[in-house]
Amino acid sequence: EIITAFSESLLSSLRKGEAEEEQEGKGYLERLSMKILDNIQLKIQNIHVRYEINLENYVGDQSGFALGLKLGQINVITTNDKWEFQFLDRTVEENIDKPMHKLLALSDLC
């Protein structure tokens, strides 16, 4: 009985250790993906969007309509609560409850 109880105890502790190692592996990937998503930056330059419609089917003549939008730059960055650029690491204990702020800046819109 003593040997059986000891072997069951040893087996359960080994299983528990394997489960903890699995959780640590998942935890690492979760922390890494959180860090990447929290701090990803987006910068798009020189955007031109044009919308055209042919009114021939609606009006009957060769008239049409076009609308264009030009944007020099779009920036999306992570900031602190004062809207200053900041690298955010919410895996650190002191930053776990901090909210994530993103700033969207548009320039040269015409």
UniProtKB/TrEMBL annotation:
One of its GO terms (biological process) is protein targeting to vacuole. Belongs to the VPS13 family. PANTHER family: INTERMEMBRANE LIPID TRANSFER PROTEIN VPS13, VACUOLAR PROTEIN SORTING-ASSOCIATED PROTEIN VPS13. This is Uncharacterized protein. It comes from Euplotes harpa.
